[in-house]
Amino acid sequence: QVQLVESGGGLVQAGGSLSLACVGSGRTFSSYTVAWFRQAPGREREFVAAINWSGNNAAGDSVKGRFTASRDNAKNTVYLRMNRMKPEDTAVYYCAARYGSGLFGDYDYWGRGTQVTVSS
User: pLDDT tens-digit profile of 8-17?
Assistant: First the structure.
């Protein structure tokens, strides 16, 4: 069982930057691939970025080149750095985890989310 807690959400102006953190529980958390998803009101959940234990990562097309996932396994923490933010990045951001190194597929554990709002 893995528990995830996100933090770092807030209000930012368009063009600005924000970093989110996801802290996971358990001694084997470093073995998990962690992803970030987001969901805006009235829209489907969208894949944002993912990173596995070795640092291999991927990003969704809408954020590629602007958002980057990273992790500190010693701190059981995964980060999402968001640069050059746009109003359309406004959403609730969730981190999720799955055991193993695959970046894509079903994620088994989810945090409660943190709100990110980008003003124009």
Answer: 999 999 999 9
